[in-house]
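Quick one: structure tokens for this chain, please?
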Amino acid sequence: MTWTMKQFRPSPFWTVSREWETETAFIIAGGPSVLGVDLEQLRGRNVIVINSSVYAVPWAQFLYFGDYRWYAEAENREAVAKFGGRVVTTSRIVQDPKVLLCRKTDPPGLAFENDTLMQKYTSLSAATNLAFHLVGPGGTIVWLGADGKHAADGRTHHHKQHPWPHRRDGYSMQLTELRTIIPTLEELQITALNASPGTAWADLLPIVNLDEFLKNRRAA
């Protein structure tokens, strides 16, 4: 058999390592409840921010975005350039040497392949999949800003509103997708918790108070 150079080309997809094995990963999503949380408590911990949450937690270890529209905005590309951690996406349109590309797969369930993240309607799925690869069996994943609803004042995010409209059925579509990841987390005995005050997704994951969760961790 004749081999060609093309057959020896490395994969363009980044493989996630088990860097935080059995540790806790905190994911900062976009929900308005983040405005009431002291994020400084997470400094020095394992943190993944989703798109514009990078402005609230610029010292996170990972920044994930799945929507090219977010990256296409000049201020967000500048935030990516300045970010001190690693930037991950599943958007193949992005041509940026700083951005690590993972394969994208559709639900149901999280992807077990370490170069693959699941996402269709919400970047929270892919960020959770990234955390899933990083912590592995026995690890813990904690969501913040996973509100599943608008705030009382009509806000949809803790950061600046995205320029594209929010879908009327967006939260229900996200919830349907997120429900599919629960069996995968349970299968690998990964503890997943929601520390988003007032979340509408109270029946999805156990609800915790971030202050108390961190206090218990320090006491353990």
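Residues 13-219 form a domain with the sialyltransferase cstii, chain A fold (CATH 3.90.1480).
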